[in-house]
Amino acid sequence: MEIHARISKEWRRRMLFMFLMFFGMGSWFLSDGYIYWPNEGARYQEFSRITDELIESGKATDAESSSVRLAWQRYAKEVGYRTAIPSERTESDIHEQRLIGWIMVGGSLLFAMWIGWNHTRSVRAEGDLVIGASGEKVQLDDIIEVDRKKWKNKGIAYGIYLVNGKRRRLILDDHKFVGCEAIILEAERRIDERSPSAAEQES
After folding, report:
1. Which is it for strands 156-163 and 166-173: parallel, antiparallel or unpaired?
2. Whole-model pTM above 0.85?
3. What are phi and psi of 31, to 5 degrees?
4. Residue 77 has pLDDT above 70, yes or no
């Protein structure tokens, strides 16, 4: 048999979605850390100055006073700020946003490299030889059992074979490498042909 099982479109879409999600979240943290939070921190300093002036003059008791809110709204409109009350953004808060952002963006870029590397891998069947995604080579007739415990939920089966009397597993992931099911079915067919019951029927 001749089969070349390459990366499936479904696996590629799922990985790209995860990459875009983490890269987007990292970019959001970075935009907060370098743009929005420093700007809001500057607005908060001005808001605090207005609040302190009103409290000192006796026109307000705290930052929650209606007079403070009205004074801020007037000032914000004059200078072109948003009228919403700004939140305090300390240097440590801003640094934390930047750190999280760079970690997520860096991690997502490494993840993208991993996705690209996986696209260089495949599972092949060349005649009676199966070459796994990691390069292991197994003869179809050496597979003594097929483990389908993860097949229903994940599309993964394991071809069990022996090396120096020890059981080894050949991963046949049809969800990731579309076309592996044909290899699994051929291995199962050969196992059935070698079974005692099949031999008795032939005799």
Report:
1. antiparallel
2. no
3. -65, -35
4. yes
Please state, in angstroms and as integers, the Cα–Cα distance from residue 77 to each residue in 38, 61, 81, 84, following that order. Answer: 20, 23, 6, 11
Could you state, in order of their start, the residue ranges of all structural domains in the chain? Answer: 9-118, 123-202
C-alpha dihedral (189, 193, 195, 196), degrees to nearest 10: 160
How far apart are the C-alpha atoms of 158 and 191, rounded to whole Å?
14
Within the chain, residue ranges assigned H as helices are 9-31, 37-56, 66-79, 91-118, 151-154, 180-194, 196-202
| Cβ burial, residue 41 (10 Å; 0-12/13-18/19+) | middle
Paired sense of beta strands 166-173 and 177-178, if any: unpaired
- Say if residues 82 and 73 touch (Cβ distance below 8 Å): no
Q: Which CATH class is domain 123-202?
A: mainly beta
Q: Please write the tens of the pLDDT for every residue from 92-136.
A: 999 999 999 999 999 999 999 999 999 999 999 999 999 999 999
85: which DSSP letter? P
With contact defined as beta carbons under 8 Å apart, do 179 and 130 qualify? Answer: no
CB-based contact 199:145 (threshold 8 Å): no
